[in-house]
TrEMBL record:
SMART domains registered for this protein in UniProt: R3H
Native organism: Sitta europaea
Gene Ontology molecular function terms on file: nucleic acid binding
SUPFAM superfamilies xrefs: R3H domain (SSF82708)
Protein name: SPAG7 protein
InterPro entries: R3H_dom, R3H_dom_sf, R3H_sperm-antigen, SPAG7
Gene name as annotated: Spag7
Region span, Disordered: 116-137
Domain R3H: 19-82
Phylogenetic classification of the source organism: Eukaryota, Metazoa, Chordata, Craniata, Vertebrata
């Protein structure tokens, strides 16, 4: 009995701490929302339960939140205003433990684009490798000729009646609703007979 009472007291204390922590986080989040020049806020490292409470508070407030950090002791939450939701690149930077620098990211993106353009230009300059023709029609031209395929394509027509059944061929002329009503009526009849 004494141990159960001690356990209950501990649980109540834990619950009270969680409620207090949630209230504190709600205050901090509302301050963050009102802070105009602050698109994101990084919170101190916290344990798993506290992080889940903060994520919940952020979600209720209509914010985006992510956890970063490798080990349990240094893991922290970052909260973003919806209009400043982070890009994939920004999230990757935080996951690597780096600070996000939009100017540096833009520079990196420009360099990547330049590299891609140069690669493309180099590919255009290099001659095609010698070898068999890539087009199977060229390979079999001596068998099919060059006009036969075009002639076949011109004469091909879609079967416009595909999937349509003429009314004369239908055995059941009822609408779906009529058929369903009949099925329901039979079911009701069966249930009435069973009772």
């Amino acid at each position: 009995p004494e141990q159960a009472a001690r356990m209950k007291k501990l649980q109540e204390q834990e619950k009270r701490q969680k409620v207090e922590f949630r209230k504190r986080m709600e205050q901090e989040v509302s301050q963050f929302i009102q802070a105009t020049g602050e698109p994101r806020r990084r919170f101190q490292p916290m344990n798993k339960i506290e992080r889940s409470i903060l994520h919940d508070v952020a979600e209720v407030a209509g914010l985006t939140s992510f956890s970063f950090g490798d080990d349990e002791d240094s893991r922290y939450v970052m909260v973003f205003k919806k209009e400043f939701a982070p890009s994939d690149e920004e999230l990757e930077a935080y996951r690597r433990g780096e600070e996000w620098d939009p100017a540096r990211a833009e520079e990196r993106r420009r360099l990547r684009e330049l590299a891609a353009q140069q690669e493309e230009a180099e590919l255009e300059c290099t001659p095609a490798p010698p070898g068999p023709p890539n087009d199977y029609k060229d390979k079999y031209r001596h068998l099919i000729g060059s006009e036969s395929a075009k002639a076949a394509a011109r004469t091909m027509e879609a079967n416009k009646a595909y999937g349509c059944v003429p009314v004369a061929n239908k055995r059941d002329t009822r609408s779906i609703e009529e058929a369903m009503n009949e099925i329901r009526a039979k079911k009701r009849l069966r249930q009435a007979e069973d009772e």
